[in-house]
Write a structure and sequence with these properties.
The complex is a heterodimer of chains A (312) and B (460). With 312 residues, chain A is an all-alpha fold. Chain A has one domain: MetI-like fold. Chain A has 16 helices and no strands. The two termini of chain A are 47 Å apart. With 460 residues, chain B is α+β, with helices and mostly antiparallel strands. In chain B, strands 1, 2, 3, 4, 7, 10, 11, 12 and 13 form a nine-stranded mixed sheet that branches. In chain B, helix 2 links the parallel strand 1 and strand 2. In chain B, helix 10 packs parallel to helix 11 and helix 14 runs parallel beside helix 15. The longest helix of chain B has 31 residues. The termini of chain B are far apart. The chains are: A mainly alpha (312), B alpha+beta (460). Chains A and B meet through helix 1, helix 2 and helix 15 of A and helix 1, helix 3, helix 10, helix 17 and helix 18 of B.
Chain lengths: 312, 460
């Protein structure tokens, strides 16, 4: 159909064109049907199937038997010995990594927003960690932090800063902070870019006016820049919280949740229950609980950080 | 659209509204048909069988899944099998050992099982209970004749409810490996007889600056070896993990408690075991042992061949010793070739071809265990096929990197893993986690053992 015909269809038919309107409606439905089919097939159906799975006893090692168990899977997961530790680890991970990645991203954005020589190249380079696949990043960090042949220990030993290998990944406490460090390195570019975009929309005249009114650097940041960055801040907080709770790849490659259960995050536990214990029912139940937790946190953020609709 | 093909229905606005309406209707229908076709294609693609027995050119294609080890040897064996069985192609898929169980579980339940695959004694009951693998004596005529030539622990490891489920790929022992040169430098002429003596020797090696951490044992919780190593330590002390299906490892004063305490003390109290032991797997330890960073380790025996023959700076300095401890016991295990239930049920042709593959790799060809012998001679893999011990070529190969006499002695003291049930594989994951937690100081020894016992009760 030519462009002219489409344009006429959108504008509507002349009086008495009920048949045309029906055809137009069918055309619209026909146009979006493939997308609806794909979304139904690859999003709605898996979601519904996961919900169905979460209320049934589905053990891969007992095929053919999937009895309805109601909310037992949810209760068993929460009562399970691993849940509490994993939830605490995830809380710690999220509580530390989200503020840090936000502050780091903002600091980098403020730096990149300066008119400094070479800042153009820096803006490209800062995206580098984000462009590296997460699994590759995990392997890189593992080689860096390995207790036997890690590059970091090698460098620190040669510089005389340490006299014995530091167990970055084999000490329960250090392992968690090693995972957080790797996560920060991988994640900060996105907040930096979002904040940079926000900073560049702030009119120079607003900052100049604040300067004329006697506002210092901190006051300009606190009372002018930060309020105008609420929208990207909300996006960063929501996104980074979701990522922190759902982070899996890095743990898989870097520590496997260990040593012991020291870096077993809630998302890793969902993987273990599903793919190692082969308990799909409990794995689906835990995944739904994780989704609910993320939704609750997002709602909380939206209440706390109210985005102003219009600029002053 | 400026022009239209005859009968295409996508006319270029030739007239009034009714004609346009008809065009739109046809377009709508066409889009709907396209969407339907796309959906059908997706469904057909996702539901179509993953492979066909009859491949292109009239050849049969068998799927063979293995864990990643010495793939060049496997491929060469496959080429020889294909040459001897014209009309049969073998498609090999390999997966890392650490992920093998999970990948195979997904393949079996996802409807794309291979025909023949590696399996292990500790997965047998789970795989049989799930209906993933089939008893082979009913499918593959003549394999029962081999049983009388296997070591008992290997036969036991491949048998469930009186039925045989595999032919041995290899069967081996967990042993103590030490660097003889480092021991001599420290003034010791003999390997340790007990774990306490091992600690003293390690302390001496450390004090003399020969190695900072003389002991390294792979205890990474993701490495399935770590549970077999732990069992071996318990057995070496004369202990048990289970009495039938009842856990005994958490009882006060148990050998399991002593073994775990020794690991904790070696790492933290005496500082002779590498703190990184909880983050290393078998290949890491082979590399660091080979580089001379450590003097002692506990590994599967075939690693001794790699250490003494591979490209390592300490090549030739490694020896095996009986496991230290009062009983010198250890774990004997068997990895085997299994036949998928899907292949067994897929008709006589596929089952027969799969049996041929199974028999070529795990049985006799021209009267000898060709492939099993090749693994033993070239790679130092252990075997359950006892007649091979009398083969001069095998004896010579073992003595070039190990000690055939000592190996036989250790084999006689070996036991299969206790507590093998259909949920052992799941319990094993939690048990390894607790062992790692105790050794890294995250929890106490008794707390770890109690958690392991609790997990067993949950699964039971």
């Amino acid at each position: 159909m030519g462009g002219a015909a489409l344009a006429r269809t959108r504008r509507g038919a002349p009086a008495g064109g009920g048949a045309v309107r029906t055809a137009s409606s069918r055309y619209r439905w026909g146009s979006v049907a493939p997308v609806i089919v794909l979304v139904a097939l690859f999003t709605l159906f898996p979601l519904a199937y996961a919900a169905w799975t979460s209320v049934r006893g589905v053990l891969l090692t007992q095929p053919g038997s999937t009895p309805f168990v109601g909310l037992d899977n949810y209760a068993d997961v929460v009562r399970g010995s691993a849940f509490r530790g994993a939830a605490e680890n995830s809380l710690l991970f999220t509580a530390v990594s989200v503020p840090l990645v936000t502050v780091l991203g903002l600091a980098v954005a403020l730096l990149l927003n300066q008119h400094l020589p070479g800042v153009g190249a820096l803006r490209v380079l800062v995206l580098l960690p984000w462009s590296i696949p997460l699994v590759s990043a995990g392997i890189m960090w593992r080689l860096l932090l390995h207790g036997n042949f890690g590059a970091l220990n090698g460098a620190l030993l040669q510089l005389g800063i340490i006299d014995h290998d530091v167990p970055w990944l084999s000490s329960p406490r250090l392992a968690m902070f090693s995972v957080i460090a790797a996560h920060l390195w991988r994640e900060f570019p996105l907040p930096a870019v979002l904040f940079l975009a926000g900073l560049q929309t702030i009119p120079a005249s607003v900052l100049d006016a604040a300067r004329v009114d006697g506002a210092g650097t901190w006051q300009r940041f606190r009372f002018v820049i930060l309020p105008l960055l609420k929208a990207p801040l909300l996006i960063v907080l929501v996104y980074e919280t979701m990522i922190s709770i759902a982070v899996f790849d890095l743990v898989y490659v870097l520590t496997g949740g260990g040593p012991g259960t020291a870096t077993t995050l809630i998302s890793w536990l969902a993987y273990v229950i599903t793919f190692r214990f082969l308990n799909l029912g409990q794995g689906a139940a835990l995944s739904f609980l994780i989704s609910l937790a993320i939704l609750a946190l997002i709602s909380l953020y939206i209440r706390i950080v109210r985005v102003e609709g219009e600029r002053p | 659209m400026a022009a239209s093909r005859p009968g295409s229905g996508l006319a270029s606005d030739p007239g009034g509204p009714s004609m346009r309406t008809g065009g739109r209707r046809r377009a709508t229908r066409r889009l709907s048909v396209l969407a339907l076709v796309a959906l059908v294609l997706v469904l057909v693609a996702s539901c179509s069988p993953p492979r066909e027995l009859s491949g292109g050119g009239g050849k049969n294609t068998l799927q063979f899944s293995v864990w990643s080890y010495s793939l060049e040897t496997i491929n060469d064996n496959i080429a020889k099998f294909e040459a001897a069985n014209a009309g049969t192609d073998v498609q090999l898929s390999d997966y890392p050992w650490n992920d093998y169980h999970d990948v195979m579980a997904t393949k079996f339940t996802g409807g794309s099982p291979p025909d023949v695959e590696y399996s292990s004694d500790h997965w047998l009951q789970e795989w049989v209970s799930a209906g993933w693998i089939a008893p082979i004596e009913e499918q593959c005529a003549g394999v029962g004749q081999y049983k009388s030539e296997w070591a008992p622990y290997a036969t036991q490891g491949m048998t469930y409810n009186g039925k045989l489920y595999g032919l041995p790929y290899y069967a081996d022992l967990v042993i103590l490996i030490y660097n003889d040169k480092m021991l001599r430098q420290a003034g010791f002429n003999q390997p340790p007889q007990t774990w306490e003596e091992l600690t003293r020797q390690a302390q001496a090696i450390k004090q003399k600056g020969i190695a900072k951490y003389p002991v390294n044992i792979p205890l990474k919780k993701d490495d399935p070896w770590s549970i077999e190593i732990f069992y071996s330590l318990v057995y070496s002390l004369g202990g048990h993990m289970f009495d039938g299906e009842t856990p005994v490892f958490a009882r006060p004063g148990s050998e399991a408690g002593r073994a775990l305490q020794w690991l904790v003390d070696a790492r933290d109290r005496y500082q002779v075991m590498d703190p990184a032991s909880v983050e290393v797997s078998e290949p890491d330890v082979v590399k660091t042992m080979g580089a001379g960073k450590h003097a002692f380790t506990v590994l599967a025996k075939y690693n001794l061949a790699e250490l003494n023959q591979g490209n390592h700076s300490q090549k030739g300095n490694f020896k095996m010793a009986l496991m230290p401890g009062s009983s010198h016991g250890t774990v004997g295990f068997v990895r085997f070739y299994a036949l998928s239930s899907a292949a067994a049920k897929a008709g006589k042709d596929r089952a027969a071809q799969s049996c041929k593959l199974l028999n070529y790799f795990g049985g006799k060809t021209d009267g000898t265990y060709k492939v099993v012998k090749r693994w033993a001679v070239e790679k130092g893999l252990g075997f359950a096929n006892l007649p091979l011990y009398d083969d001069p070529q095998v004896q010579q190969a073992i003595n070039s990197w190990g000690d055939a006499k000592l190996e036989r002695q250790q084999a006689q003291l070996a036991r299969s893993k206790e507590g093998l049930t259909r949920f052992w594989g799941t319990w094993d994951i939690s048990a390894r986690e607790q062992i790692s937690a105790a050794v890294s100081g995250q929890v106490g020894v008794q707390q770890a053992l109690t958690s392991m016992e609790k997990r067993w009760a949950e699964l039971r």
